[in-house]
Structure formats: C-alpha cells, structure tokens
Design goal:
With about 220 residues, the chain is mainly alpha-helical. About 75% of the residues lie in helices and about 0% in strands.
Amino acid sequence: MTSIAALLLPFALLQSDPAIAAEASRFQQCVALIDEDAERAYEEGMAWASEAQALGGYRCAAMALIAQDRYEEGARRLESLAFAANPDHSGLRADLMRQAGNAWLLARDPSHARSAFTRAIVTLESQPEYLPDLLIDRARAYGMERDWRHAEEDLSRALDLRPEDALALRLRATARMHQNSFTLAENDAMAAARIEPDNVDNYLVLGHVRESIRTGTVVEEQ
C-alpha cells in the first residue's frame, strides 16, 4: 500500500529558503506520523500551526486529513496554503498545488484536479525541468474526464522534456488507444516495456492495445 507521504510528496521542497529549511525536520516528523496515526498527526500539525503559524504545520494537518479519506477538505486546505504562500517561493506553491491536485484525484474530482495542476504548471513554466511530472498528473486528470486528446498533448509535451519516461509512454498509449490510434499506441506501450521490462503494467497496456487492434474496438481497462 502506498503511503500518504509517498503519494503526495513527489517533489519534496524545491526551495532552499532558510525559513523553509528550518521547518523541514519537524515537518518530516509530522509527515512520518501520518501513516502510523493520521488523527494524531493532524492534531500535532494543528498544534504546531497554532503555536508558530507554521506553514509546515498546516500542510501536515491537510495531508493527515487526506490520509483519513477526507480528500476534498485536505485538497481545499492545500490550495489555500498555496495561495497564501510567498509568491517568490514558486516551487513551494507549485508543490502545494500538486498535492492538492492529487487529493482531488483521490476524491474522483478531475475538474478540480486539472485546475490545481494547471496552476502548478503555470507557476513553474520558467523551470521546465520540473514540468514533466505535473504534465503527467494533469494528463491523468484529463484521462479521468475521458478527454483523451488533451491527455495525449500533455503526455507528448512531458516526453519532449523527458523522453525515457515509461509512465508517460504507458499513459499516452492508453490515450492514443482511446482515439483509435492503435499503431502509435502499440509503439508507446512497447517503448514503455523496453524502458521498464519488469513493470507488469506496461504489458497489460500493450495487451489491451493489441486486443483493440485485433477487434477494431477499444478495450476498456478494468
């Protein structure tokens, strides 16, 4: 089972600001507590936030809510933190928006997720090295909305920036399959399997694509 910290902290903090660095140890301790006792982590995060008005405390509390399946509440808190954060801390603001987007995906609310990911992408537009993960995330939101064309566009852009990304290739294979671009989808799935030969998900997608080619009808993943 994926931990809440692993799911919602893919960037880590992108900033080296001393004020942010000073909170890092306490923040990581609070996050580590989430998987053990999410309710206690929430209480400790809020106590820290009340004591020091620390962004890390509010953030940990929001993540603890998500771990309790209170996805929407956690997502809204993370978005509020992103809007309140110092505009100069672009990496932190984008990271908070990305966390919020992932929470909205857990809530099965792709529209709000897409909006959050878009804000993160706009925030980091001048730092393209950080964009592939965000573009992949937004493509997942588009896929949940069954907007396969825009999903493919985001995944192609991510692959332009990071060509050997098996996840992006696998997701683009699915997006292309749903648009009946079966040959391109097969090429993507085969490329993903070449990059990650031990990942069974690549072969599942490849199997779906080849079955779609055989029948002429898109295979819907379970």
